[in-house]
UniProtKB/TrEMBL annotation:
InterPro entries (alphabetical): Leu-rich_rpt, LRR_dom_sf
Keywords, alphabetical: Leucine-rich repeat, Repeat
Originating organism: Tetrahymena thermophila (strain SB210)
Designated name of the protein: Oxalate/formate antiporter protein
GO biological process, one term: positive regulation of MHC class I biosynthetic process
One Pfam assignment: LRR_6
C-alpha cells in the first residue's frame, strides 16, 4: 500500500500543521489521475524522506489554483532543511512562480533544494518572482533549478543571478536554463551574480542562447 493521498489544500489546515509536517525532509509528487476529471485541487503523496530516486513525473496540470494551494502549505514549513518539488509541465505561469517564491522565502533553514519547474510559462516575471526564495535561503549548500522551456529572457536570467549572489554558502549548483530566450546579455547578468558564490565547488550550467548555441559550463 502506497503513501496516503491528500489534497493540496489539506496541508494548509491546522490539523496538518503539527510535528508530522515540520520534518526536515519533504518530498512531493504531483500526478494525473487517469479517467478522472482534472480539478484545481489535485492529489499528491509525500514521503519523509524519499525512499527511492525521483523519477520523471507525468504532467498533472495543477495550473494556477493548484500552485496557490501548494504555496499555502509551504508557508507553514519553516523548519524544512531538504526539499524536492517536481512541478514540470503543469501550466504554471508567472503568478504561480511568484507565489512559490514568496512561500519559500520563509524556509530559511533550507540547505538542500531541488526544483523541477521546466516546461511551464513563468517568463521573466515568474523567474524574478523566485528571487525572494533564493535571496532569503542563505543556508543553501546544494541547489538544483530546472527551468528549461519557460520563456525566460535576459531580465529573468539577470534577476536569478542577483538572487544567487546571496547564496554565499552554495557548494553545489546545477542550473538548467536551456530552451528559453536568453542571449549573451542575460548570460552576463547571470554570471555576475554567480561570481559572488565563492564557495562553489561544483557548478553545472546549461544554456541554449537565442542563436541556437548550446553552452554547458562546468566547475
Amino acid at each position: 500500500m502506497g503513501p496516503p493521498l491528500y489534497h493540496l489544500s489539506d496541508l494548509a489546515l491546522p490539523s496538518y500543521q503539527g510535528d508530522r509536517w515540520q520534518h526536515s525532509h519533504f518530498y512531493m509528487e504531483f500526478f494525473e489521475i487517469k479517467g478522472a476529471v482534472q480539478d484545481s485541487n489535485p492529489r499528491y503523496h509525500c514521503q519523509d524522506p524519499p525512499t527511492r530516486p525521483l523519477e520523471p513525473l507525468s504532467p498533472s496540470q495543477i495550473g494556477h489554483e493548484g500552485a496557490l494551494g501548494l504555496c499555502s502549505a509551504l508557508t507553514n514549513f519553516i523548519n524544512l532543511s531538504n526539499l524536492t518539488l517536481g512541478l514540470s509541465d503543469n501550466q504554471i505561469g508567472a503568478m504561480g512562480a511568484s507565489c512559490l517564491g514568496r512561500a519559500l522565502a520563509n524556509c530559511i533553514n533550507l540547505s538542500n533544494f531541488t526544483l523541477y519547474f521546466g516546461f511551464n510559462q513563468i517568463g521573466d516575471e515568474g523567474a524574478s518572482g523566485l528571487y525572494p526564495a533564493l535571496a532569503n535561503c542563505i543556508n543553501l549548500s546544494n541547489l538544483t533549478l530546472e527551468l528549461s522551456s519557460n520563456q525566460i529572457g535576459n531580465e529573468g536570467a539577470s534577476v536569478l543571478g542577483r538572487a544567487l549572489a546571496n547564496c554565499i554558502n552554495l557548494s553545489n549548483l546545477t542550473l538548467f536554463l536551456d530552451s528559453n530566450q536568453i542571449d549573451t546579455i542575460g548570460v552576463s547578468g547571470l554570471c555576475s551574480g554567480l561570481a559572488n558564490c565563492i564557495n562553489l565547488s561544483n557548478l553545472a550550467l546549461y544554456l541554449q542562447l537565442l542563436q541556437k548555441q548550446f553552452i554547458c559550463f562546468g566547475l
